[in-house]
Automatic annotation (TrEMBL):
Residues 210-221 have a biased composition (Polar residues). Its EC number is 3.6.1.66. It comes from Amphimedon queenslandica. This is Inosine triphosphate pyrophosphatase. One of its GO terms (cellular component) is cytoplasm.
Length: 231
C-alpha cells in the first residue's frame, strides 16, 4: 500500500514541477482567490501573486493595462498578467471608469450613488481588461470582459470594492449578495479570464507539439534544417 502512496506522491510532485509559473500582479488576496477559482486547478499553469510596485496610470483601459503589463514584466522577467477594472456609468459617459478605486476611497458607496442623483439613467457596466505578456520584449495580449448592470443602493457584505452597489442585468442581487460561484460564473472578470484561459490552453498545446518535434518546431525526423528565405 505504501508503495502506491509513494508513487502517487511522486506523480503529484512531478505534475506540480512541470507547471509553468504565471504571476498575477496584485496585492489583493481576494482577487487572486477569485482568479484561481475561475481558472481552476486543472491547468498547466501555477498562478501566484506578486505585489509589484507600479505607478498609477491614466488613460483608456487598454492603454493602462498594456503599459502596466510591460512595466511589470520588465521587473519580474517571466510570464505575467495584470488587470485593470472599471465601473462605468452610462450617464457619465463611462466615468468613473478606470478611476473607480480612487472614487470609492474618497466617496464610499453612498457617494458613488450620489453621482447619479441628477440622472434618470442608473445603468452602468463593469469592465475587466486583462493583459498578458510572456516576457521582456514580447507582445502584450489583451482580454476583455464586460457585464451590464445598474447602480443601486448598497446591499450585501462590504467586503469587495464596489460589489454592493452593482446589480448585474437580469438579476435581483448585487455582486455582493450573490453566492461566490454565481458571481464568478457571470462576472466581467470571468469573461476576460475565459479569453485568457483559451489563449493559454492553445499556447500550451502548441508548445507541446513543438516539444514533440523539437524545441524550434522542426521535425526531428528531418536530417537537416532547410534555410528559410530572408533568414
Amino acid at each position: 500500500m505504501w508503495v502506491w502512496l509513494v508513487i502517487l506522491h511522486h506523480a503529484i510532485c512531478l505534475h506540480m514541477a512541470s507547471k509553468r509559473v504565471l504571476t498575477f500582479v496584485t496585492g489583493n488576496p481576494r482577487k487572486l482567490e477569485e482568479v484561481v477559482a475561475i481558472i481552476g486547478e486543472n491547468t498547466p499553469w501555477k498562478l501566484i501573486s506578486n505585489d509589484v510596485d507600479l505607478p498609477e496610470l491614466q488613460g483608456e483601459p487598454d492603454d493602462i493595462a498594456r503599459d502596466k503589463c510591460q512595466m511589470a514584466v520588465e521587473k519580474i522577467k517571466s510570464p505575467v498578467i495584470v488587470e485593470d477594472t472599471c465601473l462605468c456609468y452610462n450617464a457619465l459617459k463611462g466615468l468613473p471608469g478606470p478611476y473607480i478605486k480612487w472614487f470609492l476611497q474618497k466617496l464610499g458607496h453612498k457617494g458613488l450613488n450620489q453621482l447619479l442623483c441628477g440622472y434618470d439613467d442608473k445603468t452602468a457596466y463593469a469592465l475587466c481588461t486583462i493583459a498578458y505578456c510572456e516576457g521582456p520584449g514580447k507582445d502584450v495580449k489583451l482580454f476583455r470582459g464586460k457585464t451590464d448592470g445598474t447602480i443601486v443602493e448598497a446591499r450585501g457584505p462590504h467586503k469587495f470594492g464596489w460589489d454592493p452597489i452593482f446589480q448585474p442585468a437580469g438579476f435581483s442581487e448585487t455582486y455582493a449578495e450573490m453566492e461566490t460561484s454565481l458571481k464568478n460564473s457571470i462576472s466581467h472578470r470571468r469573461k476576460a479570464l475565459n479569453g485568457l484561459k483559451d489563449f493559454l490552453d492553445t499556447r500550451t498545446m502548441k508548445d507541446g507539439e513543438n516539444t514533440s518535434n523539437g524545441s524550434d518546431g522542426t521535425d526531428l525526423q528531418q536530417p537537416e534544417k532547410r534555410p528559410r528565405l530572408n533568414e
